Amino acid sequence: MARVGSLSASPAAPDAPPLLRLTGITKRFGDLLANDAISLELKAGEVLALLGENGAGKSTLVSILFGHHVADAGHIEVDGRALPPGEPKAALAAGIGMVHQHFTLADNLSVLDNVMLGTEPLWRLRSERAAARARLLQIAQRFGLRVEPDARVGELSVGERQRVEILKALTRGARVLILDEPTAVLTPQESTSLFATLQHLVASGMAVVFISHKLDEVLAVADRVVVLRAGRLVAQMRASQADKAQLAEAMVGRTVAAVARERGAAAASATRPLACTLRDASVHGAQRRLLERINLDVHAGEVVAIAGVAGNGQQTLADVLSGLRALDAGTLAIGGRALPAQPRAWVDAGVARIPEDRLGVGAIGELAIWENALLERYVSRRFARWGVVRREQAREHARRIVERFDVRAGGGLDARAATLSGGNLQKLILGRALTSPRYRDIAPTLIVAHQPTWGLDVGAVADVHRRLLEACHAGAALLLISEDLDEIFALADRIAVIARGRLTEARPREQWTLASLGLAMADAAAPANAPLALHDAS
Amino acid sequence: MRLEPRLRTPLWLWLAAPVAALAGTLVITSLLVAWAGAPVTRAYALLLQGGFGSRFAWTETLTRATPLILTGLAVAVAFRARLYNIGAEGQLYAGALAAVAVGGLHGGVGWALPSSLLFALMIAAACAAGALLLWVPAWLKLRLGVDEVVTTLLLNFIVLLLVSAMLDGPMKDPTALGWPQSVAIADALQLGKLIERSRLHSGLLGALLLSLLLAALLRFTTLGFEIRAAGANARAAAFAGMPVRTAIWKVALLSGALAGLAGAVEVAGRAGYVTLDMSPGYGYSGIVVAMLAALHPLGVVAAAVFVAGMLVGADSMSRAVGVPTYIADVIVAVALIAVLIATLGVRWRVRWR
């Protein structure tokens, strides 16, 4: 990705006092040193990227900055004045604004209501709506952030909602804007538009802290990059002097070979039997069609990826393909057979399912690891007799999964699943789906993986990818539903795009570029309001 | 002030939490006793004496604990599956009515059955009545999404009014001099006494056996696995292919049956007939018992004995020093809140700044 625009060349004078200064911030959660004496400065007119893997301490640091957490040691100054710890109100008053990854908007209120929310004392009888509207429109105009003040937030696209979040911060007088993984939900084009907005903001004298773990966008948007690893600040450099490899190594602490599907693997699989067939498959929602006449074939040993912006029908498709939801029209066959919408029938038919929400759907945090490993297969005669769970066999099964998939559990098999890190939990879910007494020689028929590496660190991502490709090699078909385009280009043989519940034809990976993929995805998303800066996939 | 999750709980905290909860309860209730104008230490001594201090006190406490164990188990198993059954009180009365209907109408001689068979029928009818009464809210919850807290709670009042109608109507005991009281079950159906010259009856053994069975069910069986999984995370359980709805059905029937059984045991073990005040809120106290026990069936026994001891002790304390018996309810309620806070403190850390 190239740098966007030329506005970024506006750093403040070197001797100007920093807008924000963190000194020796240290925070400990039990044994975990989340932040270890982190000091950094932020000047007006600067975009600072905070780069690090999950668990590196980025979120803790900004939570302390915003007053959600209190540091054990260290202090924060804004404009040379100390910021009282643990008071979000004080942080807001000092001009620190935050855009969370998961938006904090009320869907049933209008844009204007959301922006005004919390800014007026409750005891005042009249609300200053007219003034607030004028102010909102003026700020929106000034920074080129188009909004419709009376639109209901629930009806906006994700990109538009993010704009509302930014405006919310700006109308409260934010001078330092913190964005937590802002591009996670955007199309490439929307991301480009966001970056342009950020450059606009810093050009007007604000400062931006941009949290990410994606190297390309960090290099595209930031003036300066700070890398955190295991709670420590391990590298700090100007973006113009940094390169991807260098940043990646600083972030991970070692070199990690990314996993990729070997080219040409697809050619052989086109002649293999069909693992999954969807014909004119539709699911009707309350107001609109969630899936509209979808056609898709997945062959044994093949990787088909479904790209798309979040909320365009992926969840419905994943539910249908996991046996949670029946089609309203059309047909679906797994290995040539129609299956009832009952998860157990799908497990028995050899469908390995990896849900998106690991702790909400994939695992039960309150139950032990061995019990979680058993969840899909506890009814089999191997693990239960006369209604009684055969504990020894069940634990043995769990032990095999934990060993084979390298699940690192501090507390052993009896520890609660909630104590596992995200990566280890995903390995447990993956192991559960891919381990069956029947799979000893053969692989599952079909793997349905929805965002399988979402939120995982680089090492765990490579692990999960390797496992999935191994299963494909052994003959499983893989249907990968993902919003991570890097992942899609690394793994897929064929790619289809889902937008507004419609699915494009699945074409070979070579026929797609990042640009054409982005355009197909944007069919449903809000039109990007900045010129497209598109780049080739490689 | 804010709460942060503890990553690890030190052992001393596990041990200190119940002690702190007990101490907190004592301090708060002492203030109330002092306010009532009674000498605090003497009042507590009388309370403990009255609840646990003699053979008689123990038999009374255990007699009261018997229905509490059963309603406590009913609530614990339902809450484990996130089926919030607040209706144990109504289910208890429904069970009691059903027991009398089978074992007491026509003076217990309506059917020429051997008494052991009639006894089994009586128990089965009580369980079925309780189960049926929880089946309706469970059906409404699973089919229509109606909140079971509301339906089970309100059914209590409906059942109580039904009991009232029955006691003044078809089930009225004509020899009771106008008191609203049902006919009595046949003498042969009454439970045997465990100890001579006390009210303690063999229902206690049944309750203890059931708590063991229920603990084993939850821990070792596939149904127990389904109940625990569905209660902890219903979406994940359903995703994995567990029959979550079926599990909730089974839990509803089990829970209602246990509460209904409590009614039958009270009838067969004590008076032999139903009155409108046969339960001083055993169904509601069952919720407290289950929560104090952290929803564990074996803990329910200990919690039920504690609550019963407080109720019995408060009676004798009240007679001696004139503190109202309501102090027992206050002690139990404060103990519940203290235990809940202590549990919170074990899992979370409080930051004051």
Question: Can you put this structure into words, describing what you see?
Answer:
Chain A is an alpha/beta fold and 538 residues long. Chain A folds into four domains: 1-95 and 175-255, P-loop containing nucleotide triphosphate hydrolases (Rossmann fold), CATH 3.40.50.300; 104-173, no CATH class; 258-350 and 443-538, Rossmann fold (3-Layer(aba) Sandwich), CATH 3.40.50.300; 362-435, no CATH class. Chain A is 32% helix and 23% strand. Chain A has 18 helices and 22 strands. Chain A has helices at residues 58-66, 88-93, 111-116, 129-143, 158-171, 188-203, 215-221, 244-252, 265-269, 314-321, 343-348, 358-362, 369-374, 391-404, 422-434, 458-473, 485-491, 514-522, and strands at residues 20-29, 32-42, 47-51, 73-78, 81-82, 96-99, 176-180, 207-212, 224-229, 232-238, 274-284, 289-299, 303-307, 329-334, 351-354, 384-385, 388-389, 446-450, 477-482, 494-499, 502-503, 507-508. In chain A, strands 13, 15, 18, 19, 20, 21 and 22 form a seven-stranded mixed sheet that branches. Chain A has a six-stranded mixed sheet with strand order 6-7-8-3-9-10, with helices on both faces. In chain A, strand 7, helix 6 (188-203) and strand 8 (207-212) form a beta-alpha-beta unit. In chain A, helix 14 (391-404) crosses helix 15 and helix 15 packs parallel to helix 16. The radius of gyration of chain A is 25 Å and the shape is globular. Chain A starts with 19 loop residues before the first strand and ends in a 16-residue tail after the last helix. Mean pLDDT of chain A is 82; it is low at 1-13 and 524-538. A two-stranded antiparallel sheet of chain B has the order 1-2. The longest helix of chain B is centred in the middle third of the chain and has 30 residues, at 115-144. Chain B is built from 13 helices and two strands, in the order βαααααααααααααβ. Chain B has a domain at 70-293. Chain B has helices spanning 11-35, 40-52, 55-80, 88-103, 115-144, 148-168, 203-220, 222-232, 234-239, 244-271, 282-292, 297-321, 326-347, and strands at residues 2-5, 348-351. In chain B, helix 7 crosses helix 8. Chain B is mainly α. The chains are: A alpha/beta (538), B mainly alpha (353). The interface between A and B is medium-sized, with 36 and 24 residues.
